[in-house]
């Protein structure tokens, strides 16, 4: 697909789609709670639709209306043995969190996904869940799909996570909610806490003490209304576009500002971007606000340590941003990038190099030297939504034509991305 290039300026407002992590969790909690749950601003992207499809196969009634999703939950006990394979598509969040839920259910299920899912590591979840008492089989000792799972009674446990991962933490919290006694998870670094917030929103209890998160088993969750804020990981593409496309000023409305997710804002500030943050005071469980970005003179920065989990999904677009900054940007401590939808160290470095960016892969990240002009060429998303959107923003500042292959992957998290991009192009 030929992508619009050499954009003279981006101006206006965008309402980015609902947060992907929160949308997944709203379906999962709605499905295991008792009573009705309503979800507003739900992200109708491919990944979250996979979550809905899996829960329908588990017997949960879910209605996708125009402006909300309605879930009729009958509690954990209401989930039924699926007669069909649970297909998670491209969604790591769906498969990993679902395993935590299924681990405590006394029935058999089989989980598979697409080609990318088949390469992504699952032992990080299957091993601790086996420790809880679940029976899980899969290719290469339950490292890879297809995964076959027979749940049952679980014993609460204390588990120290070897990696910083909200997916692992969340899967274990779902198991902990069904286990006997207390489950305590110790994180390496603070990761997104949407699961903890949602346990509380559904009337449950969770204790957070520094890097320790504990839940009691046997709690009854009650259906509620979830307002999903806009996804900061989707907003990130327009934040970067606003900063690097000349003559631009973009306001992103109702963007989620949960502090475990706002690393991109910290990086933009460190790079000297002209960014205003206007938080709402609406008392919602998940904070949100408006972000306004203007064309900016950027400088390189260092991104590492505890900042990494707060912007892990934004690294592809940060790499492009860094290519337009004066000086060097170093990204380290980010080996987790290797096990995302693609190996994002390789895909970011290889695709940006094709466009003339001075970027080098390292063992745990990348080094980018700015500032380079973006040249034309043929690039590919490699089936990774965030690589696709990053390359589309690269085209916006290229004087030459760019062809993007596998652009359709973008619908995983941002089905109307191109519509929004085109709506901002000034005459
Ligand atoms: C997610 C957590 C992150 C993130 C993914 C969504 C979640 O993964 O990259 O896109 O919703 O919990 P990890 O927890 O594996 O780092």
From TrEMBL:
What sequence ranges are listed for the domain Enolpyruvate transferase?
Answer: 9-421
Active site, UniProt feature: 313
Residue positions binding phosphoenolpyruvate: 20, 92, 120, 167, 344, 386
Q: Which GO molecular function, any one, fits this protein according to its record?
A: 3-phosphoshikimate 1-carboxyvinyltransferase activity
Q: In which pathway does it act?
A: Metabolic intermediate biosynthesis; chorismate biosynthesis; chorismate from D-erythrose 4-phosphate and phosphoenolpyruvate: step 6/7
Which GO terms fall under biological process for this protein?
amino acid biosynthetic process; aromatic amino acid family biosynthetic process; chorismate biosynthetic process
Q: What is its EC number?
A: 2.5.1.19
Q: Name one GO cellular component term.
A: cytoplasm
Query: Which Pfam family, giving just one, matches this sequence?
Result: EPSP_synthase
* Function recorded in the entry: Catalyzes the transfer of the enolpyruvyl moiety of phosphoenolpyruvate (PEP) to the 5-hydroxyl of shikimate-3-phosphate (S3P) to produce enolpyruvyl shikimate-3-phosphate and inorganic phosphate.
Q: Describe the subunit structure.
A: Monomer.
Regarding protein family, the annotation reads: Belongs to the EPSP synthase family.
> What is the protein named?
3-phosphoshikimate 1-carboxyvinyltransferase
Species the sequence originates in: Bacillus mesophilum
């Amino acid at each position: 697909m030929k992508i619009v290039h050499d954009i003279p300026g981006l101006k206006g407002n965008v309402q980015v789609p609902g947060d992907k992590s929160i949308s997944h969790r709203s379906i999962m909690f709605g499905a295991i709670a008792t009573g009705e749950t309503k979800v507003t601003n739900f992200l109708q992207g491919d990944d979250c639709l996979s979550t809905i499809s899996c829960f329908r196969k588990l017997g949960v009634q879910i209605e996708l209306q125009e402006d909300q999703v309605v879930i009729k939950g009958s509690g954990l006990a209401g989930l039924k043995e699926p007669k069909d394979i649970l297909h998670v598509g491209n969604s790591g969040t769906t498969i990993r969190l679902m395993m935590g839920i299924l681990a405590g259910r006394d029935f058999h299920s089989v989980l598979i996904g697409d080609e990318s899912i088949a390469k992504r590591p699952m032992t990080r979840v299957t091993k601790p869940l086996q420790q809880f008492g679940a029976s899980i089989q899969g290719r290469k000792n339950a490292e890879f799909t297809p995964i076959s799972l027979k749940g049952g009674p679980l014993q609460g446990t204390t588990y120290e996570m070897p990696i910083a991962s909200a997916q692992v933490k969340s899967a274990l919290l779902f198991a902990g909610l069904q286990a006997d006694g207390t489950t305590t998870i110790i994180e390496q670094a603070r990761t997104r806490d949407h699961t903890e917030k949602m346990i509380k929103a559904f009337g449950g209890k969770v204790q957070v003490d520094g890097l320790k998160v504990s839940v009691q088993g046997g709690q009854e969750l009650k259906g509620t209304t979830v307002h999903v804020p806009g996804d900061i990981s989707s907003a990130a593409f327009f934040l970067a576009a606003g900063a690097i496309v000349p003559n631009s000023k973009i306001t992103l409305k109702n963007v989620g500002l949960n502090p475990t997710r706002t690393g991109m804002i910290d990086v933009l500030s460190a790079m000297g971007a002209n960014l205003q943050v206007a938080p709402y005071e609406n008392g919602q469980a998940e904070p949100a606000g408006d972000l306004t970005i203007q064309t900016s003179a950027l400088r390189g920065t260092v991104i590492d340590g505890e900042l990494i989990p707060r912007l892990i999904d934004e690294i592809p677009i940060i790499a492009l941003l860094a290519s337009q900054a004066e000086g060097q940007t170093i990204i380290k401590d980010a080996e987790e990038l290797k096990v995302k939808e693609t190996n994002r160290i390789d895909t970011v470095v290889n695709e940006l190099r094709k466009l003339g960016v001075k970027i080098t892969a390292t063992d745990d990240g990348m080094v980018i030297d700015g500032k380079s002009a973006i040249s034309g060429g043929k690039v590919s998303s490699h089936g990774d939504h965030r690589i696709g959107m990053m390359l589309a923003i690269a085209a916006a500042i290229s004087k030459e034509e760019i062809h993007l292959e596998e652009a359709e992957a973008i619908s995983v998290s941002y089905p109307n991305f191109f519509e929004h991009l085109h709506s901002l192009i000034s005459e």
